[in-house]
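Moderator note: this is an archived Q&A kept for reference. The question asked for a predicted structure of one protein chain; the sequence and the answer are reproduced below.
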Amino acid sequence: MPKRIHRRGPSVFHKKRHPVLKTLLWVVLAALVIAVGFFTAKYMMENFKPDTQDGPSSPAQSITSTSPAGAETTTPATTTTAPNGGSVSVDGIVRAFYLPVERLGDLGTLEAQLKSAATAGFNAVLFDLKDENGALHYQSSTDLAVQAQTIAQDAYTIDELQEALGVIKENGFAAIPRLFAFKDPEAPFSLPSAKITLESAPGMTWLDNKKEKGGKPWLNPYAPDAHAYIIGLARELSNLGVPAVMLDGVQFPNQTSSAYYGTSELTSLSQQAVLEKFVTDLTAAVGSGCRVMQSMPGLSAFGEGTAPFGGNPVTFGAATVAPVLMPSTLGDTLRAGEETLADPQSSPYDAVRLSAGQVKLRLELMDAASRPTMMPWLQGDGYTSSQVMEEIRAVTDVLGDDVSYILYQADGNYDFAALQ
């Protein structure tokens, strides 16, 4: 028979121990356990301190920084970067001044001017990157911009533009590039699918006047490629981190005799509707991190001379409207309600007061949910600093202390010390 293997369990072991020895071992072991427990508890009670509010915070809880006024503020360690890298808000009070685009090339002078402007309460700078002559002042890489062949010879490279934008941002200013849309006398020559053509000869370029009288071509507001060209530029600039873009020239020519707009999917829309679609589509393209602003003549903003827009341009959907309220642009006689002002340019306070009041009334007719904010253009050219201050006082009297505005001086030379 096979041999069975017996495994000894604990009972076998205990049977071989003597009872007295077993008892003695248990007594010694119990004494050791009691001693170790006593000293361990004593150590824990003497060295453990509960975490209180008076104790130091860990780095993960908060970061303490000093505000410009010297007061300490506590902010969460996990911070949120503004969309597109922009840290300067354009959703509140915006006090902008116009600067010729060539000024962006001298970073030292640019920074000095920004510091001077800041002392006068300005916090934004506006400059043209696509001007009313159709020239692009930066080297856009969008396909339609390359095809248009309108990039200026001295246009900034993307790196140069980003460097200038960085200086503007570092000094606490919002950079607002302006893009002229359909008012463009150059791109139509190289973008045949985006131009207005002649009604009697659709292959020929339409001009807004006789050639000998300085007639110029226009981009076609009904052409999808015209929309795509401007929207592509705005999206590109948004991706570079600008917090806003200013649109201008969002209109049809002042006279459209013999103009032919083609047969695209857009031609079934009214003039007002197609311009609204352009602004809406551009707004979607740049995203929520880039505010869309739109400039327009002051008179059209309160209901006069709206034919090129098909309606009032303040209703196109831009988040901010910028009517030009510079007195020299308001005609020989300004009529606002029951008031009439002769020679508005000679009365800057009254000219701005009346025109701003009219635009305000027009905006108040709009539903509050879709009502844009207002940021009028004020005049610097030909005015003394005291006259500029009169304009600022007028727009403040009408729109309140938190009013936004743009001060325009064509050459970019401002006496900021006098405007403090």
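Archived answer notes: The chain has a mean pLDDT of 84.
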